[in-house]
């Protein structure tokens, strides 16, 4: 195995920080909250007792501090699995690669990742402004096919593939699941379900403004195959966590019910409830 990484492969800033996240190894806690929206970062860190690091570049905003004596990081990823590819690889490099020597470390460190996102439900029974934990995920974004060592299947994935009718898209599907180690933290969640991650918000999620999407039954078909909700990051977070040896769980507030055509009347309130609910459970 090649162990010394070229400057073009592991790209660093002049201060030695990783290229996009713009942080150094000491800026990162082992427990990390990932949020899509950069504006959600201070909404999380306002609950911290101390904040020692505040850094940013592009859409990647990081704050690290302590809560009830435990070190914790909150970081924004921006939208979509393309960004998650950057976030996951650079987070892993920060803990598992010696950035000065550009060599892999002999000891592996596992990070504990919690995505706090928003999502749209495709089950008419799932009420907006409640929380959904992603137990299984199907990726329709294709990212993990660029990592040939990735393979994941379970009962959910087998049943989903057997029933999936869109032949052109079937080839790009891949699957993942939540961190079983963290599952008990969230056992009292209102909804624990199966998430579909898409490479877009409009036609990929069946929305039609001036352009048509695949078909008018898209939401119903996916719901019949066991999907509860749609969003744009979890497949890559779960897939890359499995490959790199990290624990990951997605918690999202349902802000849209796509089958009923409803959108949250106050999604800021739902977001606040999610942040408090998660912090209560991940830091005792
Ligand atoms: C789309 O509006 C964005 O919202 C959801 C989707 O996954 C996508 O990133 O998550 P966040 O609220 O975390 O960004
Ligand atoms: N985020 C998404 O990706 N889709 C929705 O419908 C709502 C939030």
From TrEMBL:
Record-linked Gene3D superfamilies: Nucleoside phosphorylase domain (3.40.50.1580)
GO biological process, one term: purine nucleoside catabolic process
Catalyzed reaction equations: uridine + phosphate = alpha-D-ribose 1-phosphate + uracil
One Pfam family, short name: PNP_UDP_1
Any one Gene Ontology molecular-function term assigned to this protein's record: uridine phosphorylase activity
E.C. designation(s): 2.4.2.3
Name of the top EC class for this enzyme: transferase
Annotated Nucleoside phosphorylase domain residues: 32-273
One GO term describing the cellular component: cytosol
Protein name: Uridine phosphorylase
Organism: Halpernia frigidisoli
